[in-house]
Write a structure and sequence with these properties.
The structure holds 2 protein chains of 2 kinds. Chain A is an all-beta fold. Chain A has no helices and 12 strands. The chains are: A mainly beta, B mainly beta.
Chain lengths: 115, 112
C-alpha cells in the first residue's frame, strides 16, 4: 500500500517570506499523480497544485511551486511571498495512475503566517 | 454551478442510530468518493464509485454503505452509529480517476 509522510506537523513563516513544506511517499509504481491540497479553517479542501509523475518539469501555480524528486520519492511545496490568506493545513496526496481508488493523504502540515 | 454539495453540515447521533449523508455534484463527473477525516489526521477513503451502479470499498469501509443510482448522487449510509464514527465526512468527485478531485464542504458528525 502507498503511504504519504509529512514530517512537519507545524511550520511558521513571516509574511512575504518563502516557506517549503515537505512530503515523501512510498510506492512501487512508476505512473502516479501527486497533489497538494489546502484546508483553511472553513474545512473546505482546495487544490493548490498537481504533478504528474511522468513529467520531469516541476509544476508551478503563481506563488506555489513544487520540487518533485522522483528517485527520492519527494514532493515538497514552496510558497513564495507568503500571505496571511495562506494560513491553513496543507495536505500532500498521492493517486495511483492505474486505479480509481481515490487519494492517499499525509497527516498534514499546519502553516502559520506571522504578520 | 454549485459543484459538490453535502447535507447536513452538522449532525449529532446517538449510539445505534442510523443516518444518510447526502452528496450531489452537478459537474457530470463519473467518479465520486467518500472520505473521513479524524482530528489531526489526513483524509481516508471509505468508498468510491466509478459510475452509476458501480461502487467499491476504500481503506475504511466498515460500518458504512453506499449506493449510486444516478451520476449526480452518492449517498453514504451509516448503520448502527458508533463513537468511532465521530468524524468529518467529505464527498468528492472527478471527471477521470487521474484528474483533480473536487471536494464538498464536509459534514461534521458527532456520535454520543
Amino acid at each position: 500500500a502507498q503511504t504519504v509522510t509529512q514530517s512537519q506537523p507545524e511550520m511558521s513563516v513571516q509574511e512575504a517570506e518563502t516557506v517549503t513544506l515537505s512530503c515523501t511517499y512510498d510506492t512501487s509504481e512508476s505512473d502516479y499523480y501527486l497533489f497538494w491540497y489546502k484546508q483553511p479553517p472553513s474545512r473546505q479542501m482546495i487544490l493548490v497544485i498537481r504533478q504528474e509523475a511522468y513529467k520531469q518539469q516541476n509544476a508551478t501555480e503563481n506563488r506555489f511551486s513544487v520540487n518533485f524528486q522522483k528517485a527520492a520519492k519527494s514532493f515538497s511545496l514552496k510558497i513564495s511571498d507568503s500571505q496571511l490568506g495562506d494560513a491553513a493545513m496543507y495536505f500532500c496526496a498521492y493517486n495511483s495512475g492505474g486505479g480509481a481508488d481515490g487519494l492517499t493523504f499525509g497527516k498534514g502540515t499546519h502553516l502559520i503566517i506571522q504578520p | 454551478n454549485a459543484g459538490v454539495t453535502q447535507t447536513p453540515k452538522f449532525r449529532i447521533l446517538k449510539i445505534g442510530q442510523s443516518m444518510t449523508l447526502q452528496c450531489t455534484q452537478d459537474m457530470n463527473h463519473n467518479y465520486m468518493y467518500w472520505y473521513r477525516q479524524d482530528p489531526g489526521m489526513g483524509l481516508k477513503l471509505i468508498y468510491y464509485s466509478v459510475g452509476a451502479g458501480i461502487t467499491d470499498k476504500g481503506e475504511v469501509p466498515n460500518g458504512y454503505n453506499v449506493s449510486r443510482s444516478t451520476t449526480e448522487d452518492f449517498p453514504l449510509r451509516l448503520e448502527l452509529a458508533a463513537p468511532s464514527q465521530t468524524s468529518v465526512y467529505f464527498c468528492a468527485s472527478s471527471p477521470l480517476f487521474r484528474e483533480t478531485q473536487y471536494f464538498g464542504p464536509g459534514t461534521r458528525l458527532l456520535v454520543l
